Amino acid sequence: MAETLSSEPQHRPYDVVILGASGFTGKYVLREALKFLNTPSSPLKSLAIAGRNPQKLAQTLKWAAAHHPNNHPDIPILVADTTSSSSLHHLAALCRLLLNCVGPFRHHGDAVVRACVETGCDYLDICGEPEFMEKMEAVYQYEAVEKGSLVISACGFDSVPAELGLLFNSSQWKVSSNEAVNKVEAYLSLESEKKIVGNFATYESALLGVANSHELRNLRRSRPRKPRPQIPGPSPPKGPTIEHQKELGLWAVRLPSADAAVVRRTLATLTENPSGLPGVNESPDQIMKREKFWSTVKPAHFGVKIGTKSLLGTLRIIAVGLFIGLLGSFSLGRSLLLKFPSIFSLGWFRKKGPSEDEVNSASFKMWFVGHGFSDINALPLENRTPDTEIITRVTGPEIGYITTPIILVQCALITLCQRENLPKGGVFPPGIVFGPTDLQERLQQNGILFDIISRRSLSS
User: Fold this and answer.
1) Is the pTM of this model over 0.85?
2) PANTHER family, per this entry (predicted)?
C-alpha cells in the first residue's frame, strides 16, 4: 500500500529508502537489497521504496521479490517526486540512508541531496556525472558536515572499480623497498556472449555532459584550486590516440568517463588528509587500521581507456564519440541523438534497455597497468623513465544492472553497520570514505574480483 508523505516523523522507521526503485537500474538495486534484508548479521532490518508512480513501484516489488522465493517482504511504497522539495524532505526524514537511482542527476539530483543534508540523512547514489558531483561538494559541503549528513556519489560502476582498483594497484608497490608508482592506466573491456546493450540513462547523461561541458569548466575555475599530490618522477607523455596494448590483447582509446575526475578528488582529499578522514566515533584500533591503510597508498597519474580486441571495435567507439561530441553541442543534434539512440550509438544503447539474457551474459574486465620506480632513492627521478610495471585487474558481471547494484548495496551496508568509522558528514567521492573499510572484501564475496596479474622490470 502506498503512503503519501505528509508529516514530519518523530523517528526514522526505515534503515534504507531506495528512490527511483522502478527505474531500469533501481529495480535491480531493490532485487540486490532483498538479498540482505533481515538476514543474519545484516544491518538492513527495514526497507522502503519510493518514486512517483505507486503502481510501477508495486510491479517492481513483485518482480524483485520473485527472485527471492523465501523472502516476500511487505515493503512500504512511498510516493515522492524529485520536483517536490517537501515530499523529498519528508522522505529523507523517514530513513537513515537514502539510495538515489533517479537520473540524469543534473536534472533530478540537487533537490534530493538538499533534502538529505537538511534532515541529516546519509545519501548514496550511482551518479557518473562529474559536474553534478563537484557542484554538490561546492554547494553542500559545509552544511553536510554541520548536519552530519554523509553524501557520497558514484557508488556504482562509476566509479568504485576505478577507485578501489587504483588503491589496490598502489598498495602493491612496496614502500619498505623504496618502490614508488608514477602512473596507472586503466583499460576497460566490456564483454558479452550476446549483444552489448547499455543503459539509456548512461547515454543521456554522457550527452548532457558534452552539451554542458562549459558549466563544469566554469565551476572548476570558480573554486579554490585543490592541492595536487606529490607524484615521484616526471609527468607521463600523452601517448597515441589509439593504443595497441599487446600484453592485454586490446586496442584502446581514452574514455572520457567520470572515473578519472572522481579519482582526482580522492587523491586531492588524501593530500589534505594523509591519514584519511577520521570517523565520527572511531576506536583506537580503527584509527590505527585507517592510518595503516592509507600509508600503503601512494598517488599516481591516472587515466582510463576503453579497449576492444580489434582495431575495428575501437574505431567504432571513436565514431560513437564523434557523433555525441559533434551533435551534442547543439539542440537539434541532441534531439536526434536522444530520439534515435540505437542509430547514433551504433546499437550500443536503446531506450528499452537490455533484456534479462543480455544482462546475464555480459561482464567486464578492468586492467590497471602501473608504471613506477624500483628505488626512488637511487637517482634523481626528474629525467628517469619508470623501470617497474605492476598489472592488477578487477573483473565482474554486467556493469549497469548487476555490478552497480552490488556496489551500491555493499556501500549501503557498510554505511549502516560501520557508521561510527565514517566521517561525521560531508560530500565526498567513495574512495576516500570506503577505501579503508572492508568494501573490497565484500565485493569479492559478491563476484567482483581483484587480482594481481604480473610484476616485471622494464628495460630502459
Assistant:
1) yes
2) SACCHAROPINE DEHYDROGENASE-LIKE OXIDOREDUCTASE
Q: For residue 220, what are the CA distances in angstroms to 132, 135, 170, 215, 265? A: 12, 9, 27, 9, 12
| Residues 6+ positions from 351 with CB-CB distance below 8 Å | 200, 341
Question: Hey, how many other C-beta atoms are within 10 angstroms of the C-beta on 348?
Answer: 18
Query: What pLDDT, in 10s, does the model give residues 309-341?
Result: 999 999 999 998 898 888 888 889 889 988 898
CA 129 to chain CA centroid, Å, is 10
Which of the four pLDDT bands, split at 50, 70 and 90, describes residue 30?
very high
Residue 25's pLDDT is what? 93
In angstroms, the CA 55 to CA 81 distance is 14
Rounded CA-CA distance 51/102 in Å is 9
Instruction: Give me the mean pLDDT over the 415-432 stretch.
Output: 98
What is the SS3 assignment for the chain? CEEECCCCCCCCCEEEEEECCCCCCHHHHHHHHHCCCCCCCCCCCCEEEEECCHHHHHHHHHHHHHCCCCCCCCCCEEECCCCCHHHHHHHHHCEEEEEECCCCHHHHHHHHHHHHHHHCCEEEECCCCHHHHHHHHHHHHHHHHHHCCEEECCCECCEHHHHHHHHHHHCCCCHHHCCEEEEEEEEEEEEECCCCCECHHHHHHHHHHHHCHHHHHHHHHHCCCCCCCCCCCCCCCCCCCEEEECCCCEEEEECCCCHHHHHHHHHHHHHHCCCCCCCCCCCHHHHHHHHHHHHCCCCCEEEEEEEECCHHHHHHHHHHHHHHHHHCCCHHHHHHHHHCHHHHCCCCECCCCCCHHHHHHEEEEEEEEEEEECCCCCCCCCCCCCCEEEEEEEEEECHHHHHHHHHHHHHHHHHHHCHHHCCCCEEECHHHHHCCCCHHHHHHHCCCEEEEEEEEECCC
Largest Cα span, the chain: 70
If you average pLDDT over every residue of the chain, what do you get?
91
Quote the cell numbers at residue 355: 533484456
